[in-house]
Amino acid sequence: MELKRALLLALCTCAVTAAHAGDYVLEIDGQKVEIDLDRPASANVGDKKAKIVLHQKTEQTWREEGISFVHPAAFAPSRRNLDKNITQTIMTTPSGTIVLVQHYIGTDPTPLVDMMVGKLSDDEVTAGYKREIKYAARQLADGTMLSGKSVRTEHPGDTWEREVLASGDHDAGFLIVAAVNDSSTDADRAMMEKFWRTLRLAKPGALEPLE
User: Fold this and answer.
1) Are residues 38 and 140 in the same domain?
2) pTM for the full model?
3) Contacts of 15 (CB under 8 A, 6+ apart)
4) How far is CA 106 from the centre of its chain?
């Protein structure tokens, strides 16, 4: 499973690097000023030269089509279209903690829960891991009910705890995977708790970004 962690680390490093690469441009009353995070710059404001510093908030809100949640600024989510009817948002940390949200249009993803559980853990069982699967459910702050499975796989030196939950109808729905392991840090677990506490999902058929 070390290869799995190494791949997740590489993915996470690329995502964070991309999020912070390059310069920013701050526009003040038509005047454009190139500026980097946490580095002072100056701009003319009226007849005075002002010192400006651009800081990044420690937490940010991810808002995309049909989904909204708060996350640490250090771990920026990424989004891609798996096909014309499935959009995936993913967020990972160096220790392998992962949040994945798939938004389906025209399909109820609830029947896909068992398939996802198998894809995530069957290879581990083949490798000798012990696996425990239980029914799981969560109610989000916006009232959305999610149901699915919790999966715990265990092997000496490597334990994973995953939730695979879904909600939807024939018009649309969401499939969510949340995973932590015995290398997940306290910060990772706090990130996961914040994700579940702040996650909001659009009702089926509502495609506009959540406010």
Assistant:
1) no
2) 0.76
3) 75, 76, 78, 92
4) 23
